[in-house]
């Protein structure tokens, strides 16, 4: 029918993708309204909008379970996206164009609007089959993940509303897999912003002398680069995955004495600065890392100083690294795995996520969380130009979540 042509899982996904929630001006209110309308069209879903920071809504959807006193299942997805450089895309990033081969192009197609809509479509299908969950199933749609989650998930996990959910297990986003197996993530790397600032002797651009700010900074950059290479060599030798080493990448350089049309070319400046994106593994000793930075990367004897901005928690409330067990000790892991294999799918070896998600705030509270986005045979395009997802992959993902949501919500062996 005409209605089915205009309103089906793919068009509903496309409509969500067409809402521009990219930074720096994400349209959160349209996204929240749309998701509430979707929840209403499913029926039996409660909704509540929380606002921990003005203009940054967090939508909480609840499918009540028959035994709602049992710990619940939380499905998380962020509302926001990173910016897109329109002119470099083959299809406009908020058009959600579907090509003849079935690829849907949009910022957020993989990261991570797919999972939000797949959660909802899976619940829609389960409800149509008269499935009733034992545990309550909550979906949190959070703002500002892409900028650190400080106005969203970080505040949410500290709230009374969150406490009241009594979450026993959660799913959050993962990454696409280029092969035939799904990937699953049991931890995130830990993001630090590192700024190295050098001071030094200013002087004439023609003069060779020691202890200029630029020389001091460049020595630091060389030391950091050597560390970077040592870590990358381990990866290149096949001894570790990218996410199992410490990464450090320069992201800005700031120096020079400004003039009207650029920089003075014959003045050696007295200050220079470099910024680095540093990612620790979940088990890196942060104190040792700080000692290394102080002693080797930015020693004060060379007139350099440094600043570390730690972006979020490193340990849980008991002081343990933020890891979710993927072995028999975690009954949720066994249920998760079984739900995947029961729909004929395979999982690759659990991994650490190379980047960082809001899952860390949940793990900080001691909640087991797996990062999972059911996209296989799919290029990894998060934050890239021409981000897209194939319609058939998206549809398969709905089926995978039906299996996951029904298994997880009816699992009652765990005492907690
Ligand atoms: C400072 S937390 C930043 C979180 C962000 N998340 C997705 O890309 C990331 O850079 O990994
Ligand atoms: Zn994401
Ligand atoms: Zn992202």
Automatic annotation (TrEMBL):
Binds 2 Zn(2+) ions per subunit. One of its GO terms (biological process) is amino acid metabolic process. Zn(2+) 1 binds at residues 78, 111, 173. Keywords: Hydrolase, Metal-binding, Signal, Zinc. Zn(2+) 2 binds at residues 111, 146, 383. Its cofactor is Zn(2+). It comes from the Eukaryota. It is found in: Cytoplasm. This is N-acyl-aliphatic-L-amino acid amidohydrolase. It comes from Vicia faba.
